[in-house]
Design a protein that fits this description.
8 helices, 55% helix, mainly alpha
Amino acid sequence: MTRWWDEFAAAVFDVISPPLLLLLLLAVAGVTAALWYSFPAWVPRRMPRWRRPRWRKPRWRLPRFRRGRKITTAPEQATAEPVFEPSVVLGDGTLLADRLAAEGRYAEAVRQRLRDVVGDLAAAGVISPLPGTTAAEVAATAAVQRPAVAAPLGGATELFSEIWYGDLPAERAHDEHMRALTGEVRARMRGGTP
């Protein structure tokens, strides 16, 4: 008496030759691996009920093998003190982050506040963010250069990560907390504490 899978394998091999079946299985494994590797890039983050989802073409990413990057700081040029203020101001004088918060788009407001403070740190020469640098890497670099900003910038980075990568629903309280943290980072940068 034969088992059912022996009969199934015999039926499959009657229809498809073994080398062709092997090629098909390898192709399926390759497609599955490619989709698994690029999984977060092609799944939409949120699907609002009131509008159709916009599907994006997947971005294929190759792994980046990095050795310890050498952190370079800009040479001291002028003695002009950098201005520590949000960089994205709309035409009517309001900040983009404040406009997003007023519209109830708190997750985007939190992201914009972190972007503004990272822009301030880059303008001050504390960090030089490269494309592909994560928020945690930026915070670590800034903490090495200016230890005074380590605590508030670390808190801002953690809040951003919980909202954007942990799918924590953003609320007004999160935006207010991010506003306080980024304000503290700017205050410590103005104070010039090392």
